[in-house]
TrEMBL record:
Residues 119-224 form the Metalloprotease TldD/E central domain. GO terms for cellular component: cytosol. GO terms for biological process: proteolysis. GO terms for molecular function: metallopeptidase activity. InterPro entries: Metalloprtase-TldD/E_C (IPR045569), Metalloprtase-TldD/E_cen_dom (IPR045570), Metalloprtase-TldD/E_N (IPR002510), PmbA (IPR047657), TldD/PmbA_N (IPR035068), TldD/PmbA_sf (IPR036059). This is TldD/PmbA family protein. Residues 35-90 form the Metalloprotease TldD/E N-terminal domain. Pfam families: PmbA_TldD_1st, PmbA_TldD_2nd, PmbA_TldD_3rd. Transmembrane segments: none annotated. It comes from the Bacteria. Belongs to the peptidase U62 family. It comes from Parasphingorhabdus halotolerans. Residues 231-447 form the Metalloprotease TldD/E C-terminal domain.
């Protein structure tokens, strides 16, 4: 695998070729990945997979016309032909008045902020095999577990380089490791499945395989013998495994493209109270060892800590340059892109700040409600905010989490849900997007 500096040289060279060939402007992104994955099932080695690949994407502009091409072949002759093809395509493309690189005055000019995203560890397939085996063994050892879908462990490294024709050039590398287990409890028609996993940038930060396995087994067993219950309007409490999905809907609603197209249920919400005044939602791109930490965005703009919700108030949209121009605003450093197509937007290490109540205090006054640990399907209307998802979890009765429930439907409107959310104090940074246990009293639940 190339070093970041070598990847940066490769991106710079392609930009130079594009400029010499006649492009008015250009940007290029180079991505190189290598990973090893090991899977165990019922104590036996099921699969060892090693994958390596590299791709480079080039976007060229001829006036207000643009085209994007990509290649996984780094042969100089192939790349030279790639430049010519991109220019030919761009000349035939329709004009787009909002197309173009990020404003030159905003591109990152200082040294990148250190994110400590690569530990340079390289665990062998034998070590990964042992981790996967330990995870599965621990899960199968839980009383009530009757079968296994397997344990897995992986290790990988990625290098990303970005260059633009108006002066930006940067690269970074990240490592990534994961451990998982998925098992089945019960027999016949009463079988239930669940899983556990953990991902980390540094190998030393990964949860113990036995911890992951035990959690997977206990989760599967806890779902056995689901009961029927009375449907109706009731409090719904989201476990941290699924509460972060609500932040995903929020981010989709404040993306510049959604606002520019007028397809967001938060279209008129800027600088208004969207959540309770106790809630803050923050994007932290420079968190050390964060799963999505990065010093610059997909257009070469510097990233920065951003308080998207400040005491319940929506402070800004998240925008790449094209949607920012359409809205008459400035890009916000949230551009995200792959080797194909134009940049979109995305967040890095997003979280909702913890509240002041423990989980027990959050649910202690609930007479009849549900505690959700699983969501199924994607029944969310981004234009209206209407929300309807299949779900599973546990009944809450008189302030206590009790018997499992499955095949239920939870429904509401995201505007009402956001306004009524109450966070617990159990925020844990385990995912790219994190939220504590969340309660909302504005939903209807239909039993299975």
């Amino acid at each position: 695998m190339l070093k970041p500096s070598e990847a940066q040289d490769r991106a710079d060279a392609l930009i130079s070729q594009a400029k010499k060939a006649g492009a008015d402007a250009a940007d290029t992104i180079y991505v190189c990945d290598a990973s090893t994955q090991v899977s165990m099932r019922l104590g036996n080695l099921e699969d060892v997979e090693r994958s390596e690949g590299e791709e480079i994407g080039l976007r060229v502009f001829v006036g207000k016309r643009s085209a994007t091409v990509s290649s996984s072949d780094m042969d100089p002759a192939i790349l030279s032909a790639l430049v010519g093809r991109a220019l030919d395509m761009a000349k035939e493309a329709p004009e787009d008045q909002y197309a173009g690189l990020a404003p030159e005055a905003l591109i990152m000019k200082s040294d990148p902020h250190p994110i400590d995203g690569d530990d340079d560890a390289d665990p062998s397939p034998e070590i990964l095999r042992e981790m996967a085996l330990k995870a599965e063994d621990a899960a199968r050892a839980v009383e009530g577990v009757t079968n296994s879908e397997g344990g897995g462990a992986s290790a990988g490294r990625s290098i990303v380089a970005l260059a633009t024709s108006h002066g930006f050039s940067g690269a970074y590398s990240t490592s990534g490791y994961s451990i998982s287990a998925s098992v089945i409890a019960g027999q016949g028609d009463g079988m239930e499945r669940d899983y556990a996993y953990h991902s980390a940038r540094h190998f030393e930060d990964l949860d113990a395989a036995e911890t992951i396995g035990k959690k997977a087994g206990e989760r599967a067993v806890s779902r056995l013998n689901p009961i029927e219950f009375k449907s109706g309007a009731m409090p719904v409490v989201y476990d941290p495994r699924v509460s972060n999905s609500l932040l995903g809907h929020f981010i989709g609603a404040i993306s510049g493209s959604s606002i520019a197209r007028k397809t967001s249920f938060l279209l008129d919400a800027l600088d208004t109270q969207v959540f309770d005044s106790a809630i803050n939602i923050i994007d932290c791109p420079h968190r050390k060892r964060g799963l999505r930490s990065k010093a610059f965005d997909g257009e070469g703009l510097p990233t920065a800590k951003t308080r998207l919700i400040d005491n319940g108030r929506l402070t800004q949209w998240i925008m790449e340059s094209a949607s920012a121009r359409q809205l008459g605003l400035q890009p916000t450093g949230h551009a995200s892109r792959g080797v194909g197509g134009s940049p979109g937007v995305g967040v890095t290490n997003l979280h909702m700040a913890a509240g002041s109540l423990t989980k027990a205090e959050l649910i202690q006054d609930i007479k009849h409600g549900v505690y959700i640990t699983e969501l199924i399907g994607m029944g969310v209307n981004g234009v209206t905010g209407d929300y309807s998802r299949g779900a599973g979890g546990f009944l809450i009765t008189d302030g206590e989490i009790g018997a499992p429930v499955s095949e239920i439907t939870i429904a509401g409107n995201l505007k009402d849900m956001f306004a009524s959310l109450v966070p617990a104090d159990d925020l844990d940074y385990r995912y790219a997007i994190n939220a504590p246990t969340l309660r909302t009293d504005s939903m209807t639940v239909a039993g299975g």
